[in-house]
């Protein structure tokens, strides 16, 4: 027999399951290994081709990694273990590593072997095989290229954090999940898919595609995937696409909805007439509703209000897209690039010891960005770039915080109190409405200064006072209703007693 050159690792594809699908090159490599009495390492011997191979090549020495499937409790390390063992063996002598299907189609272990081999200086060679895709698509009467089908390894899906699943899967296009090799993995796959699909969504488990009479397509709702023992080493799960308006947990659905609402001529008349200017008030309203949910510590409400605020982002982006100003992709690009750029201690090589250093780096990077944009950073005011649409108390405290860096600050708390009393006296002396307006503004500015000196957020403090007043007054209203009296009938002394009762009632709760 003519010797066949063998690389340090020769990776052979067995095809989907029938001996008729084994390529001539794969047969030659395996026959050479049998002739040389070389041990061949199979990822798994649970494959219909293995027994016929043993009969055809009785001298073929086979070892498999099936033990790892039973021993491993961690899906994320299973294929890594296999790859490490394969490369360790290859450093001792050339080996043949055999996998089902085509080595480069749906074979995570092969990708890990190739990655490790490159790092460890091990040469590799791929011997192609017919992949599982062709017979699976044959059974499903599906052209994967026409429908843009996604293909993902079951193990990779199983180890995805639940929050990452929606980023890996687009449920509005067909999905094929390969290597669903046992019931335990089927259970993990089901849980992952539950993030994007309804429990009742119909799926198809394709078994032994390309293996003659063993072929089967089992239809079931998603929730039944792990309630049987149908999954095995020759199983592929096919998940049909959901309608565009059914994938409610995905950003793409919101993008589709906003485009559909503003589409001519069959969109929503109200949405179509909105502009950046007309939507400004809703951005402000939704922002404050998010803050309110945060203050109430209502997580269900917060999730809803964040969605309403996100809608404003998508609406403005769609208005801009239609006007050829920018697209939603530009929004994502700006924020992603900015976060990467401003966190070199996370995404780069910069090292920091604490959050103060993070803030210092952040400010330095922002200054560099402005300089690159043509801003004369040497002649900038420290009060520049404070949005004037921000609530006035927040603007006041931000101004005060910035000027402190220049040394413009009171020396003591007593000085702040003295200035506050001075401003209060000037209000008393103000003779005209214009003077009163100005002096009350000065007083409020100094109240913000006092709050900052005491490390108190003035805006938050006022919102807290507002909530406290609302709670007490609404309690007074309830007490008045119990007494069957209108609030307008109470005298000043009665008001004071009612207020005290309201405070006591709230405190007791």
From TrEMBL:
Annotated GO biological processes are:
dATP catabolic process; dGTP catabolic process; dTTP catabolic process; dUTP catabolic process; response to stress; TTP catabolic process; UTP catabolic process
**By its UniProt entry, which SUPFAM superfamilies does this protein fall under?**
all-alpha NTP pyrophosphatases, Tetrapyrrole methylase
Q: From what superkingdom does this record's organism come?
A: Bacteria
Q: Which GO terms describe its molecular function?
A: methyltransferase activity; nucleoside triphosphate diphosphatase activity
The UniProt entry, under InterPro entries, shows: 4pyrrol_Mease (IPR000878), 4pyrrol_Methylase_sf (IPR035996), 4pyrrole_Mease_sub1 (IPR014777), MazG-like_dom (IPR004518), NTP-PPase_MazG-like_C (IPR048011), NTP-PPase_MazG-like_N (IPR048015), NTP_PyrPHydrolase_MazG (IPR011551), Tetrapyrrole_Mease/MazG_pred (IPR024180)
| Coiled coil keyword on record | yes
**Gene3D superfamilies annotated for this entry?**
Cobalt-precorrin-4 Transmethylase, Domain 1, MazG-like
- Pfam families, per this entry? MazG, TP_methylase
Coiled-coil residues: 410-437
Domain Tetrapyrrole methylase: start-end pairs: 9-225
Q: Which CDD domains match?
A: NTP-PPase_MazG_Cterm, NTP-PPase_MazG_Nterm, YabN_N_like
- According to the UniProt entry, where is the signal peptide? none
Give all residue intervals belonging to the NTP pyrophosphohydrolase MazG-like domain: 274-347
What keywords are annotated for this sequence in UniProt?
Coiled coil
PANTHER family referenced in this protein's UniProt entry, alphabetically: NUCLEOSIDE TRIPHOSPHATE PYROPHOSPHOHYDROLASE
Q: What's the protein name?
A: Nucleoside triphosphate pyrophosphohydrolase
């Amino acid at each position: 027999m003519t010797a066949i050159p063998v690389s340090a690792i020769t990776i052979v594809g067995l095809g989907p399951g029938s001996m008729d699908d084994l390529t001539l090159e794969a047969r030659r490599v395996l026959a050479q290994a049998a002739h040389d009495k070389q041990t061949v390492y199979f990822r798994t011997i649970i494959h219909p081709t293995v027994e016929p191979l043993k009969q055809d090549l009785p001298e073929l020495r086979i070892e498999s990694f099936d033990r790892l499937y039973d021993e491993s409790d961690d899906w994320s390390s299973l294929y890594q273990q296999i790859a490490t063992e394969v490369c360790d063996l290859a450093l001792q002598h050339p080996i043949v590593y055999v996998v089902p299907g085509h080595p480069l189609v749906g074979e995570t272990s092969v990708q890990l072997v190739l990655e490790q081999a490159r790092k460890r200086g091990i040469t590799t060679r791929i011997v192609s095989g017919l992949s599982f895709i062709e017979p699976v698509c044959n059974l499903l009467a599906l052209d994967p290229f026409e429908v843009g089908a996604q293909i993902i390894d079951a193990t990779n899906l199983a180890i995805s954090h639940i929050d990452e699943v929606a980023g890996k899967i687009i449920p509005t296009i067909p999905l094929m999940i390969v290597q669903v090799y046992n019931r335990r993995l089927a259970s993990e796959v089901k849980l992952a898919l539950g993030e994007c699909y309804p429990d009742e969504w119909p799926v198809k488990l394709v078994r032994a595609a390309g293996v003659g009479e063993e072929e089967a397509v089992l239809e079931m709702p998603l929730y039944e995937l792990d309630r049987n023992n149908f999954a095995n080493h020759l199983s592929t799960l096919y998940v049909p696409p959901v309608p565009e308006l059914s994938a409610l947990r995905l950003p793409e659905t919101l993008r589709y909805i906003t485009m559909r609402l503003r589409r001519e001529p069959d969109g929503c008349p109200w949405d179509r007439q909105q502009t950046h200017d007309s939507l400004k008030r809703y951005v402000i309203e939704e922002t404050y509703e998010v803050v309110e949910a945060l203050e109430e510590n209502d997580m269900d409400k917060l999730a809803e209000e964040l969605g309403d605020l996100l809608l404003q982002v998508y609406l403005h982006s769609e208005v801009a897209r239609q006007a050829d100003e920018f697209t939603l992709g530009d929004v994502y690009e700006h924020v992603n690039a900015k976060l990467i750029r401003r966190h070199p201690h996370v995404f780069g090589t910069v090292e920091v010891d604490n959050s103060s250093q993070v803030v210092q780096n952040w400010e330095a990077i922002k200054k560099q960005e402005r300089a690159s944009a043509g801003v004369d950073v040497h002649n900038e005011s420290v009060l520049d770039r404070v949005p004037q649409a921000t609530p006035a108390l927040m603007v006041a405290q931000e101004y005060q915080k910035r000027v402190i860096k220049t040394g413009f600050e009171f020396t003591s708390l007593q000085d702040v109190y003295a200035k506050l009393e001075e401003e209060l006296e000037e209000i008393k002396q103000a003779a005209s409405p214009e003077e009163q307006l100005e002096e009350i503004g000065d007083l409020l500015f100094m109240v913000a200064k006092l709050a900052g000196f005491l490390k108190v957020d003035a805006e938050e403090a006022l919102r807290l006072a507002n909530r406290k007043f609302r709670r007490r007054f609404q309690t007074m209203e309830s007490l008045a209703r119990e007494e069957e009296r209108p609030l307008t009938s109470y005298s000043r002394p009665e008001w004071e007693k009612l207020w005290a009762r309201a405070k006591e009632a709230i405190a007791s709760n």
